[in-house]
Amino acid sequence: MSLQHVTTTVNGDRAEFLCDTMETLLDALRDRLGLTGSKEGCASGDCGACSVMFDGRLVCACLVLAAEADGRKVETIEGMAGTGELHPLQTKFLELGALQCGVCTPGFLVAAKALLEENPDPDETEVRYWLAGNLCRCTGYDKIIRAVLETAADLRGQ
Amino acid sequence: MELEFTTRTTFDKVGTRPPRPDGTDKVTGRALYGADLAGADMLVGKVLRSPHAHARILAIDTSRARALPGVKAVVTRDDFPDIGPEGTVKGEVEENLWDVARNVMARDKALYEGHAVAAVAATSTAVARQALKLIDITWQVLPHVTDVDEAMRPGAPLVHEDMITAGMDPAPEEPSNIAEYTRIEMGDIEAGFAAADVVVEQTFRTEAAHQGYIEPHACVASASEDGVAELWCCTQGHFSVRDMCANILGMDLASLRVTSSEIGGGFGGKTTVFLEPVALLLSRQSGRPVKMTMSRDEVFRASGPTSSTSITARIGATRDGRITACDASFRYQGGAFAGSPVGYGAVCGMAPYDCPNVDLHCYDVVVNRPKAAAYRAPGAPMAAFAIESLLDEIACKLDIDPVELRLRNAVKEGASSVYGPTFGTIGFVECLEAARDHPSLEAAPGPNQARGIAAGFWPNYGGQTSVTVNVNNDGTVLVSLGTPDIGGSRASMCLMAAEELQIPYERVKAIIADTSALGHNDTTGGSRVTHSAGLATIAASRKVIDTMKRRAAAVWDIDVDAVVWDQGCVRPSGANAGDHEPLTFDAIAAMAPATGGPIAGHAEINAEGAGASFAVHVCDLEVDPETGRVTVLRYLAVQDAGKAIHPDYVEGQYQGGVAQGIGWALNEEYIYGSDGILQNPGFLDYRIPVASDLPMIDTVIVEVPNPGHPYGVRGVGETPIVPPLAAVANAVSRAIGQRMTETPMSPPRILAAIDQAP
Amino acid sequence: MIDVRLGATLRSMAGGRESFPVEAGTVGQVLKRLQGAYPELSPVLHRGVAVAIDGRIYRDSLLQPVPDGAEVYLMPRVAGG
Questions:
Q1: Quick check: A14 pLDDT over 80?
Q2: Is A94 within 8 Å of chain B by CB?
Q3: Residue B657 sits in a domain of what CATH number?
Q4: Chain C interface, best mutation among B1, B417, B719, by max C CB count within 10 A
Q5: Interface of C with B (CB under 8 A)
Q6: Does a structural domain hold residue B529?
Q7: Is the pLDDT of residue B119 over 90?
Q8: Structural domains for chain A
Q9: Across-strand partners of B615?
Q10: Do the Cβ atoms of B182 and C13 come within 8 Å?
């Protein structure tokens, strides 16, 4: 079976790769483009460790076919920090110790950034439900939720 | 090596909360985990697993798979050397190697659904998957057993036909699924119950829970033609991976170099090997690097969950709430191989209490399930579920406040522990008092709401540790550790080195070195790292200071006894030593090349003096009487950390343990069909708590310094998962007026209990 | 003389006896002399033990001194998650 040619935009840059028609976007990002920041925790959309933005929509990259990325825009954890400067969510996660093993962290950050873009003033319950698709086994979520709430307040200038 | 110290109590840097040295890589996606290593020439390895719960493997034919284009290696049981049960073990292997080798690849029988029976390496995932389908196995399906109580009955299908129970006198003549029996006896149990005014008894059952780390097992193996190999993997202990793989494959320890990747959670589940020896064999056979990753489904079916248990316990107490006796039978299955954590579970359950008369019977049972692996305080949460539930029952019967009941029985320094030795300095009473006085206990539970209290204990341990502290010429410091960092330990080590060397935290960095760079390090587990690697880091830092004093003395041309280390400088000890400007840490580091060469300290120790850690948890929850759904409203975890080096990560351990415990209590379970097949091998059906399931988790860090550590550290990782099963169960039981005796306390079980309530 | 005691978890493996007096100055000597003097302890020693001296637990520390009259317990080795 011949491979499919995909031209897409990843973190603002044009990217091209060849992929199997059955391949997921997660596999293409990791194995074809070397962007291993998105993690595979389940490959079934249950853990959120592969959360990416797909044409501005928060998705699990394991549930998107790589071929679907043709002509679309993909944003991953690797594109979250500006040049030489972390995103405020990244800084806050470090400040509050909102990660332990860190493997779920990229997914949480991508998902939390999407939340704050949609709702700059979420309450605790809204944050908890928005992030309910991202599993963390280490932290009990407490410090993650606090980090998102505090970042939101900082960004609102409070 | 004996480190001389008196435990200090005032600190500059220890106890602050700086960002961790590995943090930026983890929030930017740069950090490399087990599955993140790539190479051009790499093959993909996949495992064929048994579809049967129990079956004899009559024949394996791999010829069709080998003939498939793109397949570069196929391994089965025939490719593994035969290691005898009593063979000489090289290195430090705590597990039974004979069992580990058979768990890694089935030999005569597949012992559980998911047991590895063959593996292939191919040029792509698709080819590897196709090759697995071309392996022909002739099975003889055998009767199976997955339940611990059924496995103990006479006539149950035998997992190992020749297993004779150890520890029974006389030894039984017939084989059974009971691998070992242990009895723990103290005092006079009859007299103890005779002295009791109230006696409570109950049988409890807990289902198996999985550690549930988000990162599946993964490794890359690369074997060379000269017999040397390298392995990259996510593990809690790369030295023990090296030692196990080398033994299983008949290699020298020096011929195998293991690098631990960043690790995406372990909780005990990554203390053994699954894929690693297989990947090494595939690489050896193909002559190319081989990468293997488990799918989530494989993680559930083939890597170790914890035991499911069945416990019958009886406790007696006097009218004023003094425990007089406890007898119990603990039945833990350890999966298809001996080694369930029943013994430590049993002693941990009663360890918090001063009970003179104890008689505990422990049964280590095998069933057709994956080999149990360590899971955070192995064995203790289930025992605590039973014991703490019965104590709650006593508190209800005697109308005594549950914290007060525990205070009346709490072990203190000088009490003898149920496992033998006398307790040293411990902080259980302090934890109980902190819980009692916490403001969150002021809120009165509303309708359908209740509060549950439970305590927990883990002994902690030390173990072999090797650390190097290198001083660079610019005065920065690098700490090389051999204990994989699973929850921020690099930050804690940097804090301890900075404290000892009296330099800024930011000037210290830490890495996890591979097995070729340091002496042996025991696995990250048993809550040993902050204690043991901390001790070694402090000892190595003190050697740096000694060297710096010698260098400064040499420069000043005075005796080394005439200099002192003071606030990050070497100074003359007094006027007689001469008039010399103090030399700073940085100045001495800069002079290193000209004064004798690099300055480094290292410590190779077998850390002793681990301090036991106690916890008290308070859970407020609400039960919906219509649906049986439980909502946790408030949760408080109080625990003795001895000294919290980096409080963020201590709180994180408490909160994470609580979340895992709540999941185990309410949702998580291995569900087997009557066919012995696991029915929920995925995160959708094996539901771990998500953010919307939990409230904020309040923590109180009690600090009763451990005299066995220069900073007073006690391990904190295990204990937080011990109380939650019981804390949640006690709250649910009080809310519905009926004692809950099984986990998970899922809505159907709670509705059934409500129906039975008087 | 040191009175070596078996922790409750090991007692049933050695026929129920609790106390095993030996002359020894280190953990290594304790284990070696127990082996020689009390054959019934061999299942316990073969399995691997930790030694608690006055409440402090030692594992694989054969050179650790044992003061005369110390409280010495043999117990199973602790691991953990």
A1: yes
A2: yes
A3: 3.30.365.10
A4: B417
A5: 5-9, 11-13, 15, 43, 52, 54-61, 64, 71, 73-81
A6: yes
A7: yes
A8: 4-79 (3.10.20.30), 88-155 (1.10.150.120)
A9: B456, B639
A10: yes
Q: Do B684 and A96 touch (CB under 8 A)?
A: no
Residues B573 and B640 occupy one common structural domain: no
Chain C residues closer than 8 Å to B462 by CB: 57, 59
Q: Please state the domain count of chain B.
A: 3
Evaluate whether chains B and A are touching (3 or more beta carbon pairs less than 8 Å apart): yes
pTM, two decimal places: 0.95
Q: How far is A119 from chain B (nearest CA, A)?
A: 17
Using the structure block, give the residue that is written with the tokens 């109308």. Answer: B399
CA distances from residue B611 to A82, B184, B529, B703 in whole angstroms, order as listed: 45, 23, 12, 12
Q: Considering only residues A116 and C75, tell me which one the structure prediction assigns the higher pLDDT.
A: A116
* Distance from C-alpha of B180 to C-alpha of C9, rounded to nearest angstrom: 12
Q: Do B28 and A99 touch (CB under 8 A)?
A: no
From chain A residues 123-142, the ones with a CB under 8 A of any chain B CB are 124-125, 127-129, 131-142
Q: Is the pLDDT of residue B89 over 80?
A: no
Please give the average per-residue pLDDT across B284-308, as a whole number: 97
**In contact, B619 and B452? CB cutoff 8 Å:** yes
What average pLDDT does the structure give for chain A? Answer: 97
**Residue in chain A lying closest to B125 (CA):** A23
Asked whether the predicted pLDDT for residue B186 surpasses 90, the reply is no
Inter-chain residue contact B488 with A38, CB threshold 8 Å: no
Asked if B546 and B631 sit in the same domain, the reply is: no
Q: Would you call B458 helix, strand, or coil by DSSP?
A: strand
Q: How confident is the model at residue C47 (pLDDT cuts 50, 70, 90)?
A: confident
Instruction: In whole angstroms, give the CA distance from residue B634 to residue B749.
Output: 22
Which has the minimum average pLDDT: B256-260, B413-417, C16-20? Answer: C16-20
Residue ending a domain, choose from B251, B267, B302: B302
Structural contact between residues B435 and B618, judged by C-beta atoms closer than 8 angstroms: yes
Residues with Cβ within 8 Å of residue B346, at least 6 apart in sequence: B182, B184, B328, B330, B360, B362, B379, B383, C9
Q: How far apart are CA B363 and CA B341, in angstroms?
A: 10
The predicted model gives B223-235 an average pLDDT of 97
Q: How far is B303 from chain C (nearest CA, A)?
A: 14
- Could you give the 3-state DSSP secondary structure of residue A118? helix
pLDDT at B1: 45
The alpha-carbon gap from B595 to the nearest alpha carbon of chain C, in Å, equals 36
